[in-house]
C-alpha cells in the first residue's frame, strides 16, 4: 500500500501548493519551508520536497544556495515570453479546430463565454479564469494536437498569476467582446478569422502585463 500511497501524497502536495501559488495565497517571493508546509498540510517532508521539484520545473518556485526555496517572483520577462508561446498555441488551436467543431462544441463555447462575461462583470477573478480556460480549451480539445496542449500546460502556470490582473479591468471586459467575435467566426466555420480574433484576445493581456509592472509594484512584478 505504501508504494501506491506515496505517489498520491506527492501529487496531493503538488496540487495544493500549486493552487496556493496560482491563487496568491503563497505570495511571490515568500519562503517555502518544508517543515512548516508539511505540518500545515498534514504530510511528511518527502512529498513536499517532491512537489518542489515539479513546481521548479514549472517556474513557480526557485531554490537558491543558502537561501532555501521560495515562490518565484512574478517577472515581466517570464510572463511576456510565456504569453507569446501560449498566444501562438491558442491561435493554432483555433485554426485547426474550427473546421472540426460540432454543434455541441459551439454550445460549449457559447456557455463558457456567457460564464466568463458574468464572472468578469461580478469581478469574480477565479471564475473568470476558469471560464476563460474552458472557452479556449474547447479549441485545444477539438484540435487534438498533443504537442500543442502540452506546450500550453507547460507555460500557462507562469502566466496564470499575471493573468488575474486582466479580469475586472478594461482589458478583461474587452475579452467579453473578443469571445463573442471568436464564437461568430467559429459558427461561420472561418478558422482564419477565429485564429485572428484569438490572437487579438490573448494579445490584450500583453499590455496589461506591461502596465501592471509599472503601476502595481506591490504585486512583485519585475
Account of the protein in words:
Residues 214-222 have low confidence and may be disordered. The chain has two domains: 2-71, Arc Repressor Mutant, subunit A (Orthogonal Bundle), CATH 1.10.10.10; 76-219, GntR ligand-binding domain-like (Four Helix Bundle (Hemerythrin (Met), subunit A)), CATH 1.20.120.530. The chain is 74% helix and 5% strand. The termini are far apart. α2 (34-41) packs across α3 and α8 runs antiparallel to α9. Strands 1-3-2 form a three-stranded antiparallel β-sheet. The chain has 222 residues and is mostly helical. It is built from nine helices and three strands. β2 (61-64) and β3 (68-71) form a beta hairpin.
Low-confidence stretches: 214-222
CATH architecture of the largest domain: Up-down Bundle
Give the helix proportion (percent range): over 70%
Mean pLDDT: 86
Terminus-to-terminus distance = 46 Å
Please tally the β strands and state the result. 3
Amino acid at each position: 500500500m505504501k508504494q501506491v500511497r506515496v505517489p498520491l501524497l506527492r501529487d496531493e502536495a503538488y496540487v495544493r501548493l500549486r493552487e496556493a501559488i496560482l491563487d496568491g495565497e503563497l505570495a511571490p517571493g515568500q519562503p517555502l519551508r518544508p517543515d512548516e508546509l508539511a505540518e500545515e498540510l498534514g504530510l511528511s517532508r518527502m512529498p513536499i520536497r517532491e512537489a518542489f521539484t515539479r513546481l521548479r520545473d514549472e517556474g513557480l518556485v526557485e531554490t537558491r544556495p543558502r537561501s532555501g526555496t521560495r515562490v518565484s517572483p512574478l517577472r515581466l520577462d517570464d510572463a511576456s515570453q510565456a504569453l507569446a508561446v501560449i498566444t501562438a498555441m491558442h491561435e493554432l488551436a483555433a485554426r485547426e479546430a474550427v473546421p472540426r467543431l460540432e454543434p455541441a462544441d459551439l454550445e460549449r463555447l457559447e456557455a463558457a463565454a456567457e460564464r466568463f462575461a458574468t464572472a468578469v462583470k461580478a469581478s469574480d477573478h477565479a471564475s473568470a479564469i476558469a471560464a476563460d480556460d474552458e472557452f479556449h480549451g474547447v479549441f485545444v480539445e477539438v484540435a487534438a494536437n498533443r504537442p500543442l496542449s502540452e506546450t500550453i500546460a507547460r507555460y500557462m502556470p507562469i502566466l496564470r498569476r499575471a493573468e488575474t490582473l486582466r479580469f475586472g479591468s478594461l482589458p478583461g471586459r474587452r475579452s467579453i467582446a473578443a469571445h463573442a467575435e471568436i464564437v461568430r467566426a467559429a459558427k461561420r466555420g472561418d478558422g482564419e478569422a477565429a485564429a485572428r480574433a484569438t490572437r487579438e484576445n490573448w494579445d490584450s493581456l500583453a499590455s496589461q502585463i506591461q502596465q501592471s509592472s509599472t503601476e502595481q509594484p506591490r504585486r512583485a512584478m519585475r
